[in-house]
Design a protein that fits this description.
alpha/beta; four-stranded mixed beta sheet; 3 helices; 4 strands; about 20% helix
Length: about 100
């Protein structure tokens, strides 16, 4: 589900600290499964939530979709990246329910 030449990866250190990175992609269940209980997720959030159709067409994620990926994998920290310069305002974010976390 990643764009051409964009990848997702999981880096797990000997200490068990897990970092998950995703390049340009629409939400990806494979990334969620591989990144379960990550300490840090770095995920692109190119478009605001009002542009979900455009996100699908361009294989990108909205802000809420990227946050949901992090919540679904129970990431401790979510860092959003790759905000489009074409949209200079604060992105519109839909409210997401807060799931139970194994980190609580």
């Amino acid at each position: 589900q990643h764009c051409f030449d964009a990848y997702g990866l999981v880096l797990e250190l000997n200490s068990g600290f897990k970092i998950v990175y995703s390049g340009d992609t629409e939400p990806c269940d494979t990334l969620v499964k591989a990144g379960m209980n990550a300490d840090v997720l770095i995920h692109e959030a190119t478009l605001d939530d009002e542009k979900v159709t455009e996100a699908r067409e361009k294989k990108h994620s909205t802000v809420s979709e990227a946050v949901k990926v992090g919540r679904d994998m129970f990431a401790r920290t979510i860092i959003l990246s790759h905000f489009s310069q074409r949209y200079p305002k604060i992105p519109i974010i839909n409210k997401l329910p807060i799931p139970e976390s194994p980190h609580s």
